[in-house]
Write a structure and sequence with these properties.
With 341 residues, the protein is of the alpha/beta class. Helices cover 54% and strands 16% of the residues.
């Protein structure tokens, strides 16, 4: 019997897909089992905490005797298990975390964040973005939680967009945006900053967050035979809409919102497909001037957000602790393999 090559390829691809799916399920299952084992060990350690630190030392020693080739039961890791249980005594929460984190990611969060809410927020973002351990550390050190959750954001998304897009758009915003890969120079103009952002597009996409796809810079549109150029144009895969970003080197001015409103209207008319959601605009300024921006957006028709951005060596004192040292940045950038990690 002759084998049709196209049928054979289809069969092979189907089998490969099944293998990959099963491998993923096995890994997820193994990760879940490991988490639950560590959680239960942590529970026991906490129940007998009155025995003191020697209990953990003796436990590590005795486990090593019976399982000499098994890793993961050092004194240090047993202390992480105890801390993990103490942080999450609720069994149902732990079950949800097993699909979002590896144990190493969990230990980073135990070391670097405060409270369940922040831990769970980073766990969810990690699940969505697939961060490596180094990238997770990077996001925590750059205060992502504070910039996305705790800061008061200036926008009109809830008034101009319908749920769930309004909520997702709000969650996407940061304030400030940290463009710490750009060296600030006295007298730097908008086009220079834009060029640096495009030159470092991988780092820019990492800072913007999951879902942003770069369309172009100085993107040309024509309205009534007049040429206009958008600073940066993106498409957001989760929001399913275009995102127009305008850069300003100075303080926010009310007229900026009007111009961006015009650009968004043009993109909606000229680029937006029927399946796309309404285009969103984002103004990035040195100083957003909160109340002025809020008043300016109140009667603007299109969805717009206003945020600040910070360049390296362009930080006021209240932001100095957000960025690591120049030496740390250079080392970290050298370690970053790219946005896909």
């Amino acid at each position: 019997m002759l084998i049709n090559s196209s049928d054979y390829l289809a069969v092979i691809n189907d089998i490969k897909s099944r293998i990959r799916l099963t491998q993923r399920r096995v890994l997820l299952s193994a990760n879940a089992e490991l988490f639950m084992l560590y959680w239960n060990i942590g529970k026991v350690i906490n129940e007998y905490s009155v025995w003191g630190n020697k209990f953990i030392e003796n436990l590590a020693y005795d486990i090593k005797l019976d399982f000499p080739d098994t890793r993961g039961y050092s004194v240090r890791n047993l202390k992480y298990m105890a801390k993990f249980y103490k942080t999450f005594p609720d069994f149902e929460i732990v079950q949800s975390l097993t699909a979002q984190l590896t144990w190493t990611h969990s230990n980073v969060l135990l070391d670097k964040v405060k409270g369940q809410d922040e831990f769970l927020w980073y766990a969810q973002r990690n699940s969505e973005s697939g961060w490596s351990v180094d990238l997770l550390k990077e996001q925590i050190e750059n205060k992502l939680y504070e910039r996305q959750v705790l800061t008061k954001k200036t926008n009109n998304f809830q008034e101009r967009l319908t749920p769930p897009q309004s909520d997702l758009a709000l969650q996407t915003m940061k304030d400030p945006y940290m463009f710490d890969f750009i060296q600030y120079r006295e007298g730097m103009v908008e086009r220079e900053i834009e060029a640096e952002l495009v030159k470092n597009i991988t780092k820019l996409l990492l800072e913007l967050g999951t879902g942003f796809a770069f369309v172009g810079n100085q993107y040309h549109i024509e309205v009534e035979n007049e040429d206009f150029y958008l600073d940066l144009l993106f498409y957001h895969l989760k929001l399913r809409c275009y995102v127009v970003i305008e850069l300003k080197t100075g303080d926010f001015k009310p007229e900026y919102a009007g111009k961006l409103n015009f650009y968004i209207s043009a993109v909606d008319d000229l680029l937006k497909a029927e399946r796309d959601n309404p285009t969103i605009g984002l103004l990035l300024c040195k100083n957003k001037r909160g109340m002025i921006a809020e008043y300016s957006l109140r009667d603007i028709e299109k969805p717009i957000g206003v945020s600040e951005y910070k360049l390296f060596k362009n930080l006021p004192k209240e932001y100095e602790n957000i960025l690591p040292s120049a030496e740390d940045i250079e080392k970290r950038i050298g370690l970053l393999p790219g946005v896909d990690d």
